[in-house]
TrEMBL record, chain A:
This is Carbohydrate ABC transporter membrane protein 1 (CUT1 family). GO terms for biological process: transmembrane transport. Pfam families: BPD_transp_1. Coiled coil: none annotated. It comes from Actinoplanes lutulentus. InterPro entries: ABC_transporter_permease, MetI-like, MetI-like_sf. Residues 69-282 form the ABC transmembrane type-1 domain. It is a multi-pass membrane protein. It is found in: Cell membrane.
From TrEMBL, chain B:
This is Probable sugar-binding periplasmic protein. It comes from Actinoplanes lutulentus. The keyword Ligase does not apply. The lineage of its organism: Bacteria, Bacillati, Actinomycetota, Actinomycetes, Micromonosporales. It comes from the Bacteria. InterPro entries: Bact_solute-bd_prot1 (IPR050490), SBP (IPR006059), TAT_signal (IPR006311).
């Protein structure tokens, strides 16, 4: 049995981590809350306390913030659905151990090791309306009517960035799914086959429920990635991004660059609440789907 | 010290830190005066000028100079915070407008008033570096934010000289289109460069020279007739822009022009060097759309005095930084910079040997307006106004785009 003295000593091992957590997360978070109640410009030695007016303005009287939130939610939905579905599909197809599947896994994983800036350069080339790969390919196969301005189309621009994001990270999520699929006991598939289940039914009644933990992990991770897709968006859209490509992280950065640090802090607080709300909803949805 | 004391100490330190975090923002920034590094930091955003500056640095023996270069948009966003620390940018540059004003408000410019180096500049061209009677910085570059024209294509279209009114301009674009080239390459997908066209679209339509600045103060609105005229003229330009103009990057528009596939490039003289770098050999001139009738046109184009050089008041190497700025202000050195980068400078007595600078020299005496786009000090307001022009180019009606922009301006001004 561990004595009280030993347990106390063990507690000390956590102190360095707690100091780092406190110094680099807790204190800035508290400072952010404090700044959110000021009109500080980020460099003056003086400021005014403005109470909660920054927060109420962000929520009720800021079309730019609302637009960024809408874009972010569109982006989140497109990436979570697209990336999860693609990663699962790739994992199911490549779960078997063979030389071909190992090579293909490596190929699909490759984009993950690139930097966001490199990915942005690649997709800028793909999406360029005049010299880009996408329009050139469509033109070459006679599908000119589907050619687009891509990132220049206000209504769909954020969805084209979502495509780049899915390409960037689907391989990483595929690896998580493959690990999940490889954990499923083969007997379950054998039993399903004995009961006459086809491939789809095996997937529906064996694979899908058994990869639930992996799915929860993939969705949670993808959600965070979607909220943090700052560098990819700046790389593709420039700084500051136009309204069709502005998301919460870039909006906060623009406000900061506009010498409104107090207001940017208030936007960050609402951003944090939005992430917490979305994560909570996802957890509940995951529990409902997987029991 | 026993374990209990250690825990008490940790709790106390934590509580003190939390209290400190709850304290207000502000306070003074640190200075770098104690830094032992003897290299002078020169902060700017023009990566394309790096080689020319290296050449100038190689011939400068008074100090070692290191270029700290950030991309222009990042520089706009983060330079002030870096400069306040004093570790970067003993000598530095700033954009005219919002950034210059913010840096002044933060007290980062060391006053250059009365310094000998100031006398080396054309007085009329360095007003953008002055505030409250003090010369805080010296604008170095003299650029023309006026579209570039491929003179070979313009001549083929039968235009010996630039059209004098809006109808004439549209007629030129029609002729270029009939020749199978893109009449007007415009980087609508690049926020920084898309907005350059606004300068020439506004100067002759605006009721006063400070009309854009008055949008920010609320005295003018983007729903006013004169600005709706600007937006309607953007709408008229849409058939002449390249395919997918709202999604075209600056590099792609530049390439289109440099390859001789576009008659005009809607940015400015600061891209001449980039065009030549891509191998273009055709003649280049500037050609501004005159947006009114000939008799009502006040200006032939737009210029800007920018790349404002200054000494960092937070630096411990102010004397060395001032000496470096003085070196750059020498007409011979400024000539190396100008001819190497294909940009005019504000320094007096510079000899331009670069063929493009010689060709554009007549613009130094033409009637041009100081670029109005930089009258905005609030980036959100500027973004809303410029976004309206891009939305119109993307198919939105001028009235709708103006209404949406005005709503944002009312919230942000």
């Amino acid at each position: 049995m561990t004595s009280l003295r030993t347990r106390g000593t063990l507690f000390l091992f956590a102190v360095p981590a707690l100091i780092l957590y406190g110094g680099f997360f807790l204190l800035p978070a508290v400072q952010g809350l404090r700044y959110a109640t000021t009109d500080w410009d980020g460099y003056s030695s003086t400021f005014n306390d403005v109470g909660l007016s920054n927060l109420t303005d962000v929520v009720s009287d800021d079309d730019l913030f609302r637009n960024a939130l809408t874009n972010n939610l569109k982006f989140l939905l497109a990436v979570v659905v697209g990336q999860t579905a693609l990663a699962l599909l790739l994992a199911v197809l490549l779960a078997a151990r063979s030389r071909a599947s190992t090579a293909l896994r490596a190929l699909f994983f490759l984009p993950t090791v690139l930097s966001s800036v490199s990915v942005a350069f690649i997709w800028k080339f793909v999406y360029d309306p005049n010299f880009g790969l996408a329009n050139s390919l469509l033109g070459a196969v006679g599908l000119d009517r589907f050619q687009s301005a891509y990132l220049g189309d206000e209504a769909t621009a954020i969805l084209w960035v979502a495509v780049a994001q899915v390409w960037f990270h689907a391989g990483q999520m595929m690896v998580i799914y493959i690990a999940g699929i490889n954990q499923i006991p083969p007997e379950l598939y054998e039993a399903a086959k004995t009961d006459g289940a086809g491939r789809w039914q095996q997937f529906r009644h064996v694979t899908w429920p058994m990869v639930a933990p992996a799915t929860a992990l993939v969705i949670a991770y993808t959600t965070l990635q979607s909220f943090k897709a700052f560098d990819l968006i700046l790389g593709l859209a420039g700084n500051p991004p136009r309204s069709g490509l502005d998301v919460l992280a870039t909006r906060i950065y623009t406000t900061f660059a506009n010498s409104q640090l107090g207001y940017a802090a208030a936007e960050s607080v609402i951003f944090m609440i939005a992430i917490a709300a979305v994560t909570l909803l996802q957890n509940r949805a995951a529990r409902m789907v997987h029991g | 010290m026993n374990r209990r004391d250690l825990l008490r100490l940790a709790t106390g330190a934590g509580a003190a830190s939390l209290l400190a975090a709850c304290a207000g923002p502000g306070g003074s920034s640190s200075s770098d005066s104690a830094k032992s590094d003897d290299t002078l930091s020169f902060a700017h955003w023009r990566a394309e000028d790096k080689e020319v500056f290296e050449k100038i640095i190689a011939g400068y023996s008074a100090a070692k100079v290191r270029q700290d270069i950030s991309p222009s948009n990042d520089y706009q966003s983060t330079a002030l915070q870096k400069l306040r620390g004093g570790s970067v940018g003993d000598a530095f540059t700033a954009f005219r407008g919002a950034q210059f004003l913010d840096i002044a408000k933060a007290g980062v410019w060391a006053d250059l008033t009365g310094q000998a180096l100031v006398q080396k500049y054309e007085p009329a061209l360095i007003t953008a570096g002055a505030q409250d009677g003090k010369q805080l910085g010296v604008p170095y570059q003299l650029v023309f934010n006026t579209p570039l024209a491929n003179t070979d294509l313009i001549s083929k279209a039968g235009f010996g000289e630039a059209p004098k009114d809006w109808d004439g301009f549209l007629s030129l674009l029609d002729k270029l289109k009939s020749q199978g080239v893109t009449p007007f390459a415009w980087p609508g997908g690049d926020a920084a460069n898309a907005g350059q066209l606004l300068n020439v679209m506004v100067v002759n339509n605006a009721p006063t020279d400070d009309a854009l600045g008055k949008i920010e103060t609320g005295e003018n609105k983007v729903t006013d007739d004169w600005f709706l005229t600007v937006l309607k003229q953007y709408q008229q330009l849409v058939p002449y822009f390249q395919t997918g103009a709202t999604g075209t990057s600056s590099d792609a528009a530049l390439a289109l022009f440099a390859q001789g596939k576009a008659g005009l490039l809607g940015t400015g003289s600061f891209q001449v060097a980039g065009v030549r770098k891509l191998g273009a050999t055709f003649g280049i001139d500037l050609l501004a759309p005159i947006t009114t009738t000939a008799d009502k046109a006040k200006y032939e184009g737009v210029f800007n005095a920018t790349f404002i050089l200054g000494v960092n008041a937070k630096s411990g190497k102010q004397d060395a930084a001032r000496a470096w700025i003085e070196h750059l202000s020498d007409p011979e050195v400024a000539g190396v910079y100008a001819n190497g980068t294909s940009q005019h400078v504000t320094v007096k007595g510079v000899e331009y040997t670069n063929a493009d600078l010689k060709a554009l020299a007549p613009w130094l005496t033409k009637k041009t307006a100081l670029a109005p786009r930089f009258q905005f000090s609030n980036l959100d307001v500027r973004g809303a106004v410029e976004n309206a022009t891009v939305q119109v180019a993307g198919g939105k009606s001028p009235e709708e785009a103006a209404e949406a922009a005005q709503k944002v301006i009312d919230q942000k001004k």
